[in-house]
Design goal:
alpha+beta, Outer Surface Protein A, domain 3, four-stranded antiparallel beta sheet, three-stranded antiparallel beta sheet, 35% strand
Length: 182
């Protein structure tokens, strides 16, 4: 008995996307688009079918384990297709007196109030730009890698709750605490 998971198991392919999955690749899926190529190992219990410009993720049964693998695989493939077509981006904001960032070659230099500047080597496949000294934009085609890079930069000095100084995500809200009372 093969379950497809209804419409949630379907992924529409964009024009200019090449998908390779089959016996010559083993259980690896390769998605190639205008921004690059991504490869991922697909769980052997989940199968993938391609027809009429769509990718269909098929699970062998309706057990909870197979349902979870089905949803995970579908989301990972969707992220691969989105990554090679439009890419992913995360914005970071730096607030604090003297806090700033700049890109120098393949290194992001951060001045975050420590006695020394922090030099963060930019990972392969990631692009970091600083439109302003207090803004950092991390872009790439792999969603996980973009998020991990942004989280590592944020961890150098996370936002503190009293004055809001530090590095935060562009859309993050920091709950502010009231200071001491006399």
């Amino acid at each position: 008995m093969r379950q497809t998971g209804g419409a949630r198991g379907l992924l529409d392919l964009h024009v200019g996307i090449e998908v390779a999955f089959g016996l010559e690749q083993g259980s690896r899926l390769r998605v190639k688009g205008p921004l690059g190529t991504l490869e991922r190992e697909i769980h052997p219990e989940i199968s993938i079918e391609r027809a009429d410009g769509e990718i269909r993720v098929v699970r062998p049964s309706d057990q909870p384990r197979h349902r979870a693998l089905h949803g995970l695989t579908r989301t990972l493939i969707n992220n691969m297709v989105t990554g090679v077509t439009s890419g992913f981006s995360k914005g970071l904001e730096i607030s604090g007196v003297g806090y700033r960032a700049q890109v120098a070659g393949k290194v992001l230099k951060l001045s975050l109030g420590y006695s020394h500047d922090i030099e963060y080597p930019i990972p392969v496949g990631i692009t970091i730009v600083t439109p302003k000294p207090t803004e950092v934009v991390v872009t790439g085609i792999e969603k996980q890698k973009v998020g991990q890079t942004a989280a590592e930069i944020r961890d150098f000095r996370g936002p503190e709750p009293y004055k809001g100084k530090g590095v935060k995500y562009a859309n993050e809200f920091i709950f502010r605490k009231e200071g001491k009372k006399k």
